[in-house]
Structure formats: C-alpha cells, structure tokens
Amino acid sequence: MDSPNVDASVFTFPWVDQLGYERLSDPQKVELIRAARDALEIQVGTQLMRFMSEKDVREFDDFLRSPAGSDSAGAAWLARKAPDYQRVTHQIVAELEAEMRRIVADFDAGAQAIDWPADERGPREDWDGQDGDEFAQPTDQQGMEQ
C-alpha cells in the first residue's frame, strides 16, 4: 500500500514542474514522486513516533497490515491518536519542497558555471586532443595479458 499514513496527494507532475523539475522525463518524474512520498512517510512517521506510545505504534502498524488498512482509514486513525499529524505533514512537505528547490538551484548554478565548448560533444582543447578513448574498458584479451 502506498504511503498509507500520510496524505501525499500533493505529489503530482504539475507539483514536480512547479519545483523546477520540468526538464525530467515522465519516468524520471514518477521516480522523483516515489522518492518524495517515501521521504515524507519516513519523516512523518519518525516525528509522530516521538509522541505516540509503543502500544499506539504497534497498533498502527498492525492496523496498516490488516485488510482494513487504507489511506483514508489510516488518516482517520491518525486523526484520533495523533491529532497533530496534519500539521507535521504540511511542515515536512514544505521542508521537502525547499530542499528540492535548493537542489535545482544548485544544479542550475553549477551548469551555468561550466565553460561548455561550442559543440558539447567535441573534443576539448584542454584535453590535449585526447578524445576519452584512453578511458575505454579493456577487452577480455587485454585483461588476460596483464
């Protein structure tokens, strides 16, 4: 079951685009959303466990593993046992968004700082004409000679 103990419905393609990841392919966006949902679930769970008794944690875990465990039922259980979970969830989503924006900004700043040659695939002059072949993997025969 996907993120049963948090409301992760905010994680959509438009959300990813809004954070600056519009250049990603759809499969990459799916992976980013999955990672964000997982991070949210772990972080919210960690925060809530601080305020829940061991008995409540076991009860919630048992509940999630039961046939009755679903996103909406999990949210209802949390509303009863951990009424602050919505605030915690929103706070952690905001922190994740800030971190994701920072990553994009750092990447963009780094990309702008690189002195790209006119033809990005061509040899670079500061490589003394080397085209990267010296980094080729040895063939089976080459590996056996050594």
Quick take:
With 146 residues, the protein is mostly helical.
List the SSEs and their pairings.
Layout (H helix, E strand, L loop, with lengths): L12 H9 L4 H24 L4 H12 L5 H11 L3 H29 L26 H6 L1
Helix pairs in contact: 2-5, 3-4
Could you describe the 3D structure shown?
The protein is mainly α and 146 residues long. The chain has one domain (13-145). 62% of the residues lie in helices and 0% in strands. The protein contains six helices and no strands. The chain has helices at 13-21, 26-49, 54-65, 71-81, 85-113, 140-145. Helix 3 (54-65) packs antiparallel against helix 4 (71-81). The radius of gyration is 24 Å and the shape is elongated. The N and C termini lie far apart (52 Å). Mean pLDDT is 77; it is low at 1-6, 123-137 and 142-146.
Ends distance: 52 Å
Beta-strand fraction estimate:
under 5%
Q: Give the helix/strand class.
A: mainly alpha
Q: Helical proportion? A: 55-70%
Our Rg estimate from Cα atoms comes to: 24 Å
Main beta-sheet strand count, sense and barrel state? none
Q: How many E strands? A: 0
Assembly state (oligomeric): single chain
Give me the strand/helix succession.
HHHHHH
The residue ranges in which pLDDT falls below 50 over 5 or more consecutive positions are 1-6, 123-137, 142-146
How would you describe the shape?
A: elongated
Mean residue pLDDT? 77
Count of runs of 4 or more consecutive helical residues: 6
> How many domains is the backbone divided into?
1
